[in-house]
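INFO batch 0412 | record 1 of 1 | parsing
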Amino acid sequence: MTLSDPLQGIPALPSGDDFEGFVWSLLQRRYPPEKLRYFPAAMGGDKGLEGFSTDGIGYQCYADKDSLTLRARTDKQKAKLTRDTNKLTKNKDALISLLDGTVLDHYFLIVPQYHSTEVIEHANKRATLVRSWGLPFISDKFAIAPKTPQDYQGQYQAALLDAAAQVVLAEPTVSDVAVEDFGGKEPELATTLLEKLERLKDHHPAADVDVMRASLTRWFLAKEEMMEALRGMPQTREAVEAQRRLRQGALEFENGFAVTQPHNRVIQLVADYAKQLEARVAGLKAGDAERLSRGQTGEWLMRCPLEFQAAP
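INFO prediction complete | emitting tokens
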């Protein structure tokens, strides 16, 4: 029996309109001008690397725009590494002149995302082969590694703060099965949510509790998926968490004064918290702020910071 390929089910993150330009803007924040050389293909480059830093790192960017899954993207990244490392020996004389005495210890393929195991294994094999060629600009400890913009956290966060970049998150995908199974996996949260929704129905007898429960559960699971993805962007994740703590503290205080109809309070909370996230978390897109806000509102209902007053 052939096992299914897990990478087929992982969506490829969008690359952005000018990924190469963005990456080099990060590198320009990292290095002073005299320590960075840039020669893209459009300017006579395409010799296996787009540039280098004088501390011995070669750089190549790659962001295919038509991959729908991480499997397609991974295969293309491996092929890209093969093609471009072959160019290092093919363009040996030109690279000796361009590098002008700099010896490369590292070669970074900078991509929007990668599957670590496959791409790193392939990169290690290619590095071993390149070292065997005896090129004068390749050191005996030469290594190849995939990188993403998030690996340059200081520069990436600076770009977010001055609006030169946006946080890129895949749209969360929550299956119907995951929603259905939630009650069995998180019985306390599911029970609390149901109790809150039944209380809301006291105010609105025609409310469809099952539909609301399914929607809020789906939103919560989507938010959890997004927060897990943000582990790769720790400063952005902490910024979201800081806004959650701030809003949650106010929410608990507001419960004593909340005479607003429950459905109005939920709708207003989603809208207000989304605006707060978009305004205060650098680089967060409006759609992602909305998804995080809906999911967090669902969690607040499940974990009790958001309460409804009983109907009179």
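INFO post-check: Residues 180 and 214 are 8 Å apart (CA to CA).
INFO record closed
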